[in-house]
Description:
InterPro entries: Nitroreductase-like, Nitroreductase/BluB. This is Nitroreductase family protein. By secondary structure, the chain is an alpha+beta fold. The chain has helices at residues 9-20, 58-77, 135-146, 157-175, 178-187, 245-264, 279-289, and strands at 31-36, 39-44, 82-86, 95-101, 151-154, 205-206, 226-227, 234-240, 268-271, 294-302, 320-323. The mean pLDDT is 94.
Amino acid sequence: MSATQYLTEDEVGILLTAASHAPSMHNTQPWKFEIHGPVIDVLRDSERALPAADRGGRMSRIGLGAAAFNLRVAAALLGHETTLALEPDPARPDVALRIFLAARNVPVPGLSSLYGEITRRHTYRGPMAGVPMPPELRHKLAVAAGSEGAELDWLDSSQRTRLAHIIQTADERDLHDEDRLHERLRWIGDRREGDGVPGAALGPLPQGPAMVRDLAAGFDTPDREHAIFESTAAVAVLCTPSEDTHAWLRAGMALQRLLLTATSHDVAASFLNQPLEYADLRDEVRTVAGRQAWPQVILRCGYPAHSTGHAPRRHWNDTLSEWH
C-alpha cells in the first residue's frame, strides 16, 4: 500500500466482499469498483447487462444501489461515516454512485449492526412456513425502505389475487420470448462458480399454483424436487416517488436495507419481478398497488420452511478495476 492509499488491502476486501453479496437480477453482479483514497466509485459493468430482460438497465441499477448499501454497512463497521453522490460525473456515465468515506472513528451505530446479515441474506425460492409475519415487523420493513427514500406497500388478499393474474401473464410471455430464454440460459441452472443462479438455488417446483418465480421455466430440470407452497404469500411492492436512474439506485439501497433488516428477524424473501419487465404489465402493477409511485421490486416474504442453496459470488479481486 502506498502512502496515498486510504484503505488497507484487508479493508478493501471487507468492503468489496460485502458489496458482492448484494442481490442482482439473475445474480449477474453487474458492478465493478474503483477506489481513489477515501472515494469509492460503483460502476455499471456493461458486459453483465441483460439486454433482453432489462433493456433500460433499471434492474441493473437497482443491483448497483444494493451493492452500494452493503458497502456503506461494511464501511460503518470499519468506523467510516459515508456520504453519496448519484451519477456524479457526466463525462463518465458508467459511474453510477460515488461513496465518500469520512475519517475513521468507531463503528457507526445503526448501519454497522446490519453487517452480520450480509452473508446470511440470500434469495429463498422455497415454500414459506405457515407463520404470519407480525404487523409490527411489516411496519419495521416499511420504515427501513422509507429511510432510503422508497415506499413499501403490503398487498391485501384482493390485491394479491389481481397480481397473481398479472404474474401469470408475464410468465406466459417469458416462455415464448426466445431472446429472454437464451439470455437466462447463460445465467440460470446447472453448477455455477462465481455468478448466476445454480440449480441448487432454484428451489423446488411447486405442486399446484404458487406465487413464486421459477427461473428455470422453459428449461429441462428433471432432478428438481417438488413441494407444496403456502396458499397465501406475504407480498409487498417497493415503490419510488419518481422514475429515473436516480430513483432506481435509491430503490436498490432501500431494497437492501429492508432485506438485511428482514434477515435479522429470520425472514426470507424472493422476487416476483417478471411483470415489471414489461411496460404494460408494470402499469397494471402500479394500478394494483393503488398509488402514483413507481413499482420497482415485488417481494414475496416469510419464514422459510426449508433450506435452499445460495447463489455463488465472485471474489472481490474480480470486481476491483482500479485502486490507488
